[in-house]
């Protein structure tokens, strides 16, 4: 596997941005922004979906210890239902960028769309988390922070087994929704109920 590119351009301080949980049935969407040192390299670093859970948790420590700056943002299931998931993903990225202790001059964003952040230039990269180290690092942080959040929610509603499916629409999760209905953390705007509505 070719190693990830360290940066898109070298003139400006660059932050990689990515989100996690956009397609989930339940819980918040998380995003992260990361500014990596120029020579950062880790053999396991990749798009978070390609990395095993144990390795993601190891990488999170490495990224947090070595990043020049990092930030994590979250938008709740309630707000997702109010403003839609796409806007929520962008808002979570903006909140993550807000947290950076060093202000970036250029944003490298995973995906094909983005709402500009203040007056900072940005570049969208489709599947950027498998190309650029800073986006991959952001994807690892967003994913691990969100997974931790869903593990906590699992304790409240264990019947959906979020500790395993993290709120994604797996067959097991869909079956649990059919059996138990939706709970307060499900995204009601996603039209995920199979038939009559049952809330608790």
Number of strand segments: 5
β-sheet strand percentage: 15-25%
Fraction of helical residues: 25-40%
CATH topology: Nucleotidyltransferase, domain 5
> What would the average pLDDT be, to the nearest integer?
94
CATH architecture: 2-Layer Sandwich
Q: What spatial form do the alpha-carbon principal axes imply?
A: globular
Please count the helical segments: 6
**SSE run:** EEHEHHEEHHH
Structural class: alpha/beta
Task: Give the CATH class.
Answer: Alpha Beta
* CATH homologous superfamily (4th level) name: Ribonuclease H-like superfamily/Ribonuclease H
Widest sheet: strand order? 3-2-1-4-5
Span between N and C termini? 47 Å
Total domain units: 1
Radius of gyration over all CA atoms, rounded: 17 Å
Task: Describe what this molecule looks like in 3D.
There is one protein chain. By secondary structure, this protein is α/β, with parallel strands linked by helices. It is 36% helix and 16% strand. It has 6 helices and 5 strands, in the order E-E-H-E-H-H-E-E-H-H-H. A hairpin with an 8-residue loop joins strand 1 and strand 2. Helix 1 packs across helix 4 (133-156). The longest helix is centred in the C-terminal third of the chain and has 24 residues, at 133-156. It is globular and about 55 Å long.
Topology:
Elements lengths: L13 E7 L8 E7 L17 H14 L2 E7 L1 H7 L1 H14 L7 E5 L10 E5 L7 H24 L5 H4 L5 H10 L20
Helix pairs in contact: 1-4, 2-3
